[in-house]
Write a structure and sequence with these properties.
144 residues; globular
Length: 144
């Protein structure tokens, strides 16, 4: 019994310690670009690194960050990877880190579910499904 338990622990899937939560992408059209967003929950004792994303309907996929470009302007730039510290959650969201799905080969209508493959240094390959949603607009607040 101890041997079986040892083997199970030895060959357990590292992605069990890494969970992808709330994956979604923005609605978009063929030839355009859209954003992919999700939370990465790292329950392991080691940091992990997201270094590549694949989405077949996109001609190009890049991991991006949003940054302060000065003069009240924001910019976006590609990053080669994202490190997710041990025992933490990292959120990819609009206006922050996100994945850009570019040169779309098809329309991405509301309700579309796309298969996305994430590549991590520790957890390996994780395949998720992300649903296309309309971008939520921020409500204007009236302060009197």
């Amino acid at each position: 019994m101890k041997l079986l338990l040892t083997l199970l622990i030895l060959f357990s899937n590292p992605s069990d310690k890494l969970k992808i939560k709330e994956p979604w992408m923005r609605v978009s059209a063929k030839g355009q670009t859209t954003g992919l967003y999700f939370k990465i929950e790292n329950n392991s004792d080691k940091a992990d690194t997201l270094y590549k994303v694949e989405f077949e309907p996109a001609g190009k996929v890049e991991i991006h960050e949003t940054y302060d470009a000065g003069n009240d302007m924001m910019g976006m730039r590609e990053v080669k990877f994202i490190v997710i510290p041990a025992k933490s959650t990292f959120e990819l969201k609009p206006g922050a880190h996100h994945v850009m799905l570019m040169k779309l080969k098809t329309d991405i209508p509301k309700g579309y579910e796309g298969e996305v493959t994430l590549f991590f240094k520790q957890a390996g390959k994780i395949v998720i499904k992300a649903e296309a949603k309309e971008m939520m607009k921020k409500k204007m607040m009236n302060h009197n």
